[in-house]
Write a structure and sequence with these properties.
Elements (H helix, E strand, L loop, with lengths): L4 H16 L2 H7 L1 H8 L5 H25 L3 H9 L4 H35 L6 H11 L4 H29 L22
Length: 191
Amino acid sequence: LTPNKGVYQAVSFVVNIVRSLPFIIGIIMLIPLTKLLVGKSTGSLATVVPLVILSAPFFARLVETNLLAVDPGKVEAAQMMGASNRQIRWGVLIREAMPALIQSITTLAITLIGYSAMAGAVGGGGLGQMAINYGYNRYNYAVMLIATILIVILVTIFQALGSYLANRMDHRITKTTPKSKKHHPEKDGFQ
């Protein structure tokens, strides 16, 4: 609605760079910043810093794609009716993109589950660290299997919840109506 090509290109460049970093390398590169912000570089709290920094650009690109997918005709119609940019952003763009945004949040949550499991390799805690320290390093494959099953269960729950919420928010889907009585032309006097 109010494009700024210079700002967009600068932010897009940064987003592309951060998105191209492998997560495990990003965690290691962010250790000094993590120590500065939370006072330590390992543990669950320290994992939050790289998780946020490295997942934000990924989510930003998802949101951008969702908003660009909104029919431009709806934005144009709102402009013709005199809607302000704020009304268009929240009343048209966000509202129309809401099911896709919910699916993007679901994708982000599942990605963060995977990222947090990878963070276990560098002392990030959680199921990933349990699988590595007590499973892989001790040749206890049962622990690795259990941790993997728990991660799969978490992912399945998040995906089911996200799909349910997206379907509930999608006003384009026609809701099923109760079955009506069958029409019998003979009973209505038609031959």
